[in-house]
Design brief:
single chain, about 450 residues, mainly beta
Length: about 450
């Protein structure tokens, strides 16, 4: 709201001018010393819950006079009408197979012909054109997901904000999907058990999912979006590809006593199966003084837990979700002894294919070191590659080592400045080529 072009953030901060106590009626009590002016009132429709075409009409009446003269009233005949415009941004639904379905080198997912089971991740999002949009987006109400599987299969909902009706294989969401929240989504993991089916070697098994719901103010709609994920029944499942890698690197731009450095320990599950019981240990060298540790990573929503425990020097563990991360300076660390870091997955925490973990350790190089000294360090990982269909778990054990050499003290200024010069006068155009000048100091 503004008065004569000046924004009034709190109408009541002009004493006696505006009375908002009886909204939606607003009364302007104009002091006698104000000879002229204008008011602007902004009408905002409630986000997500205002149907398309909903309208409001604003009427205004003015009265003046008093004293010895009579009061005169002037009212608008028709008022001003504002009409809401909104669209349904929903939806998009996707489905992808997960372990126990095994990803093959040919890009297909496989299950066993005998007692085959596959998990699937189902994700609901806005249409790609409206993912980040806020205004004019309708909520989707009475949302449900139709799970279309073989009649001989049984479906179980493992996780997600909904309830499965097992007689119809329909998942009913607990809440509406909010259109006014950017990048809003809902995610589910289901398990489909095909052990009641007579599967043959090489049989392609389609599994389809459909999104249903009612855009607010509109009629119910079925099959707003759909997706199909296939798995192939096979007598002998592909084996583990054993391609996951533990990597340790060091960043020391000036390897002299008293300068800063950083260890980075990275692990990625590049296998075609989840990995359990992940445990990363690092006994840090006595030649450095550790200062700060941070841990973060990505973990699949199919894991029933995302928790990891981190401990230092054999002390009490701190539990944290990997997708939230951890950061801190352990009070038990000593600059005089060797320090250890232990990161351990919860018993229910699985790293699915493409999940990652990264540990970063900032340190100071011990000032007592001499030129030519070599600082060596290794990180160790233990885990188990789950192979439930074949009833054999592959033991995973890896080491990754790195070292750096202490150099003669010297001045190494490492500041790097980049100057950007856009080749357009329009600051809002971002898809044009820009030129850069790099200045090293």
């Amino acid at each position: 709201m503004d008065f004569s072009g000046n924004v009034v953030s709190n109408p009541n901060n002009i004493s006696g001018l505006i009375d908002t106590s009886s909204l939606p009626t607003v009364v302007f009590n104009i002091p006698s010393n104000v000879k002229s002016g204008s008011f602007t009132i902004t009408v905002r429709f409630c986000a997500g819950v205002t149907p398309n075409g909903f309208s409001v009409t604003n009427n205004i009446c003015a009265s003046y006079g008093g004293g010895n003269s009579s009061i005169e009233n002037f009212c608008s005949d028709t008022g001003l009408t504002s009409v809401a415009s909104a669209i349904n941004p929903w939806g998009k639904i996707t489905k992808e197979p997960l372990f126990p379905a095994v990803f093959g080198s040919d890009g297909n997912y496989y299950i066993s012909t005998s007692g085959g089971v596959a998990n699937y991740k189902i994700r609901i999002t806005k249409d790609v054109l409206y993912e980040g949009a806020i205004f004019g987006m309708l909520n989707l109400t009475n949302v449900s997901i139709s799970e279309i599987a073989l009649p001989c299969a049984s479906v179980t909902l493992l996780s997600g904000p909904g309830v499965l009706n097992s007689s119809t294989n329909t998942i009913v969401l607990n809440n509406d999907l909010n259109g006014n929240i950017p990048y809003e989504y809902a995610e589910f993991v289901i398990q489909v058990d095909y052990s009641g089916c007579a599967l043959t070697n090489g049989q392609v098994i389609p599994n389809t999912v459909e999104l249903n719901g009612t855009p607010l103010g509109e009629t119910p709609q079925t099959n707003l979006s759909n997706d199909t994920a296939n798995v192939i029944a096979i007598d002998n499942l592909p084996g583990a590809n054993l391609s996951s890698v533990l990597e340790k690197s060091v960043e020391v731009f000036n390897p002299v006593p008293g300068c800063l450095g950083k260890y980075v320990i990275s692990f990625s599950n590049n296998d075609n199966r989840p990995i359990s019981l992940v445990e990363i240990t690092d006994q840090l060298p006595s030649e450095i003084i550790p200062k700060y540790v941070s841990v973060f990573g990505s973990i699949n929503s199919a894991s029933t837990s995302t928790d990891f425990d981190i401990s230092f020097n054999g002390g009490l563990a701190t539990t944290f979700p990997l997708d939230i991360g951890f950061g801190g300076t352990p009070s038990v660390w000593s600059s005089a002894t060797t320090n250890t870091v232990l990161l351990k997955a919860d018993s229910n925490t699985l790293l699915y294919p493409n999940d990652t973990v990264q540990i970063t350790i900032d340190f100071i190089i011990d000032s007592a070191l001499t030129t030519g000294a070599i600082v060596s360090n290794c990180a160790h990982l233990d885990g188990a590659i789950i192979d439930t269909p074949n009833n054999v778990n592959e033991i995973l054990s890896q080491d990754s080592c790195i070292d750096f050499t202490i150099e003669d003290p010297q001045v190494k200024l490492c500041a790097l400045k980049r100057v950007r010069k856009a080749n357009t006068n329009d600051p809002f155009v971002t898809d044009l080529i820009n030129t850069y000048r790099r200045i090293r100091i």
